[in-house]
Design brief:
By secondary structure, this protein is an alpha/beta fold. About 30% of the residues lie in helices and about 20% in strands.
Length: about 250
């Protein structure tokens, strides 16, 4: 019998993986730590299978530890008798609440078998949503930017938890970055926004990220040469003209 940590993806119900959907449908109980993950899970299982857990909105570590111990005590007996799932948006191992549950289960209920089902993370989904290509050989750093933080250094960064976009933007621009912001990308709940204007998203929203790239970053891929080829009157590339005229 197993406790599955299931990544639901960025928020749209049809972006749950096939494996994730199969696990949700086969388990006896699906535990959800919040409203958004619950909403996505309900697209795949009946509400009668949902087990809600209560976590306080606090930074008090003692209260949080108590909440996780209570959650583990609720989940562990059911995971011994059958299969259960704990769902989380994104991937269970990337900026996820699941890590707290895993550590608590390991500490107090080590006999519970555990398996992780990866999900589509905002780390990768952002590139499609924002039209960004991370080409082969590129370096990309993952950082937090809560409360106006603006880390600098790497050529490219994805910044999570952008809760004060204007303050973060100021620091990044001073550090020589071009910045694009994405809010609630591939999420069914709330408005999706993609913008380079931090004032557009100046209100706090946990589900906001930024892509920052050094202004003077130059990347030349072999196939980029196709974009600069001259076109003949018929719209063909110079290479194609040469090929057909031989």
């Amino acid at each position: 019998m197993t406790l599955y940590g299931v990544g639901l993806g960025p928020g749209e119900a049809d972006l749950v993986t096939v494996r994730g959907k199969e696990v949700l449908e086969s388990t006896d109980v699906v535990y959800s730590p919040g409203r958004l993950s619950r909403t996505v899970a309900l697209n795949h299982v009946d509400e009668s299978k949902i087990g809600d857990l209560d976590f306080p909105m606090t930074k008090d570590e003692e209260k949080l530890r108590r909440a996780w111990k209570e959650a583990a005590a609720e989940i562990a007996p059911n995971a011994r008798d059958g299969d259960v799932a704990f769902v989380t948006l994104g991937d269970p191992n990337v900026y996820s609440t699941f890590g707290h549950l895993r550590r608590t289960i390991d500490a107090f209920h080590p006999d519970v078998d555990l398996e992780i089902v990866p999900g589509v993370s905002a780390v990768t989904a952002f590139a499609t949503a924002m039209g960004v290509e991370i080409e082969a050989g590129a370096g990309l750093s993952l950082r937090e930017a809560a409360a106006g933080a603006s880390p600098t250094g790497p050529d490219r960064m994805i910044l999570f938890k952008v809760t004060d976009a204007p303050a973060t933007h100021e620091g990044l621009v001073e550090g020589g970055y071009d910045v694009t912001y994405g809010r609630r990308l591939f999420m069914e709940q709330g408005e999706t926004i993609i913008t380079d204007d931090p004032e557009t998203i100046d209100e706090r929203d946990y589900y906001t990220l930024a892509y920052a790239e050094k202004e003077d970053l130059e990347v030349e891929q072999a196939t980029a040469a196709f974009e600069t080829e001259t076109k003949d009157a018929g719209g063909r590339s110079a290479a194609a003209v040469e090929e057909t005229d031989d």
